[in-house]
Design a protein that fits this description.
Helices cover 36% and strands 16% of the residues. The chain is an alpha/beta fold. The strands form four sheets. It has a six-stranded parallel β-sheet with strand order 5-2-1-6-7-8, with helices on both faces. A three-stranded antiparallel β-sheet has the order 9-10-11. It has a two-stranded antiparallel sheet with strand order 3-4.
């Protein structure tokens, strides 16, 4: 048993944000039906690298966001396809979509039309900059990809070395972070529906999600006029120190932790320096003073030795692990963060699970992403009045 058993989700998702949101729900037991374009499907089905085996092709760019789902192909641009989609939504608890804003409206499936067909539906629309009436801004009609939103939200402005160009965070960050918020909002709306009997429209913007990450910086700017710069946090000394076998990351936000840090690196003399007398001074001078002074000690030791020494002094620190090290990390294994699925083209592969853990419940299912349209007949065949002849007719005319 999983927390969302019995919940049906219809996903009209593409790329990352919508599909990851729906996959998060699927991992917790929801039945997720992914509606895709006939013959093409989610554009990420064509992303490299492509793996082929025995006539079956899978995209490594598609797999991490689409496991534990079922696939239905349906042409929403046709009147009949849009009607079938509306009938499918009548059977659903949740709809997740991240199409271009206005795409469903053009098919006659705007929010009002959808709610009229299923007042209990929780409808979550993910977009780059938001679309709800009364909350539209000058960028609401822009198409959005992850990197563009990272840039617009200010996240990129604070990432990178001092004096260097702005850099994006990890690939797909804005998409995945937004998807987690969207899934949270969906679960809140389902909870509210239990009390009110009504569904909810959720307007989840990638821009909002990423702007919320800068809450501290935005507050401090409003308070002091300070604009953060790349490579330095002027209010907390932090960064990576070179070790003999890589790097160790530290943060030293208080005077007490500064004393512990100096003791750990055997440099009590640093406590007497006037240019390091306060937290803001140490933050400003982290790149040109604190780091080089500390690295005289850290360069002679391994990451493990440094982290252990800092722990003895009550200082939090962590090895900067590379992707291969994370893949083999014993903590990842202990947390069961990598789940195995048996993909028809790739074989047995390991994927990062969505980071929700419910001890005592059934583990995350391990079904691979569906082949395009694999479940079309089975799912649409359950709709009232649909027969094998109906399905054959729809297929002959490209509706499915």
């Amino acid at each position: 048993m999983r927390p969302l058993d019995g919940i049906r989700v219809v996903e009209v998702g593409q790329y990352i944000a919508g599909p990851y949101c729906a996959m998060l729900l699927a991992d917790q037991g929801a039945e997720v039906i992914k509606v895709e374009r006939p013959g093409a499907g989610d554009p990420r089905r064509g992303y490299d690298p492509l793996i082929e085996r025995e006539g079956t092709t899978t995209s490594a760019g598609f797999v991490p966001y689409n496991r534990n789902k079922r696939s239905v192909t349906l042409d929403l641009r046709s009147d009949e396809g849009a009607d079938v989609f509306g009938r499918l939504l009548e059977t659903a608890d949740v709809c997740v979509e991240n199409l271009r804003p206005g795409a469903l409206e053009e098919a006659g499936l705007g929010v009002e039309e959808i709610v009229a067909r299923n007042p209990r539906l929780v409808y979550c629309a993910i977009s780059g900059y938001g679309r709800a009436p009364g909350f539209r801004g000058p960028y609401s009609d822009r198409r959005a990809f992850d990197t563009a939103v990272q840039a617009m939200s200010g996240v990129m402005s604070v990432i990178g070395e001092a004096g260097g160009p702005p850099l994006p965070s990890v690939f797909g960050f804005a998409d995945v972070y937004t998807a987690v918020f969207a899934a949270t909002a969906i679960c809140m709306a389902l909870f509210a529906r239990e009390r009110t009997g009504r569904g909810t429209f959720i307007d989840q913007a990638m821009y909002d999600s990423c702007v919320s990450l800068l809450d501290r910086s935005l507050f401090l700017f409003g308070l002091t006029g300070h604009v953060p710069s790349r490579g330095v946090d002027e209010f907390a000394p932090l960064g990576a120190l070179r070790a003999r076998d890589g790097y160790v990351a530290v943060v030293i936000p208080t005077d007490d932790m500064w004393r512990r840090f100096c003791a750990a690196i055997e440099r009590p003399d640093l406590l007497e320096r006037e240019d390091l007398a306060t937290v803001p001074l140490r933050a400003t001078h982290f790149p040109d003073v604190v780091r080089p002074e500390a690295e005289a000690w850290t360069r002679e030791r391994t990451r493990a030795e440094i982290v252990a020494r800092f722990a003895e002094q009550g200082l939090p620190a962590g090895e900067v692990q590379t992707v291969d090290e994370v893949f083999a990390c014993p903590q990842v294994d202990a947390r069961a963060m990598l789940v195995e699925v048996d993909d028809p083209a790739m074989g047995r592969v390991r994927l990062a699970r969505t980071p929700l853990l419910f001890p005592g419940w059934d583990p995350v299912p391990d079904r691979p992403p569906p082949q395009l349209g694999a479940d079309t007949d089975e799912i649409l065949g359950t709709l009232p009045g649909v027969t094998e002849a109906t399905l054959a007719d729809w297929r002959s005319r490209g509706v499915i």
